[in-house]
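Q: Got one fold?
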Amino acid sequence: MTSYNFPETENAAERCAGVVKARPLHEKNAAQHVADLEMLSTKEVLKPVFFKPASDEPKEIEFIRVDGGHDEGPSHCEVQYWWTVHHLKAQTVATMITTRNSGASYKNRVELQNGCLALGHANLFVPSTLNGSCLTDNGKVNETKLKENLSSAIDVYLSHVDGVPCATTEIHLFRGAESEAYQNENKLIKVFLKGSKAAKQELQKNNPEMYMKISEILDLKRRHLCTGAPTKYVFYLYCCYEKDCIHPCCKQGRPEVEPTWYTGGPPLSFLPLPMVDPERPFASSDCSQCKGVCTGHYLKPEQLRKAFASGTYIAPKPPSEVLLSAMKNLKYEIPHENGILELSREVLLSPEETRMWCEHLCQVHRNRVSGAKKKATAKEKPGAKTSQKSNQKCKSRSIEKDTCLQCGQEDPPGTFQTEDDGDVVDWICCDGCNKWCHAFCSGMPDISESDDWLCLACSDNWV
């Protein structure tokens, strides 16, 4: 189930929707989500969500909050690609994708929907053999029968749970969209983004049209991506209005008046990130809003807008980035009481919360160090190929139990090798800690050009 909540606005009531899916009929990735969203936009009951009520035209501004998983999180390359495709096809002027902070599920109204759905299907039993057993005579799974049973199970679920009440509305359920074309494209996107050099060349040779399309979409993302936002939490596309851009809105030219987030609101170029309120600082003695010690506050929306208009707007770094940077500088040692207090003042968290997060980051670091020490010594398989490159720290080899320092895997994630590549994997050794890393993960595919290389951990602490 993928739950969608469209909050109430001045001219539209709240809408709740859910897309029911099952493996292997549907995938859990960004390509499937885009196909689902396109399907939802065609449903009459959800029309007020996607179209302006007065003109019946598609809405030009989208603000979407998602989960932080690999299939939704705004920092993932594949997710960004598919949101850019959606931005182009829906012809939106602005598309902003954000994710909530860790531990804030209770603030997410989608969780209310999930609870209502759980109540709605609490007494529902759907047999797994609606059309007969999924097993063959020899005990193996009959994939055709499995898909048939799963499809029927979705129909039963929809017939019994669709329309379940949620707050003052009801939840509309739909079958997952057919996304085969998008899934095929998604495989090629992985090759384009993460494949070996040979695989990319093969893609360009055998599928030049798709290679060109992917290139254009990524170029559109580069043009429209609003920089300055914390990429872990925000992905914001805003029209560049350059005539050579492939986006339909850009081809029409720059409007005389910059579009705003809402009537009378700030311009779309304004990125509404939090800003610390100087009038309500950390440890304020006269704060009527906080019980006990005041941990400071951020500007309210209207104050934030005025700060942006006056040029005094300063967006702080997310607390997660501030704390991680501080712990790296302290070599992952818990600060003393005064140090915790200073960090608390910077991130507007209580000293107790700040200490908790520092301890968490230290534990993560210790786990990674322990894992690296346990890493088995690299063993080469008989007959494995060896690179003749000038950089002696660089090796091409097949690995049995060795894992990469950065990705923690034996093989580079998402890479696709051709038969010409054989079982060769490029590795490079860090000059600081003498640990090995995939060339792909190091961000230096052509490692033969480098005489020196430091991993992220060593480069952060290198003086």
In short: The chain is about 35% helix and 10% strand. The first strand starts at residue 2 and ends at 6. The CA atoms of residues 56 and 393 lie 62 Å apart.
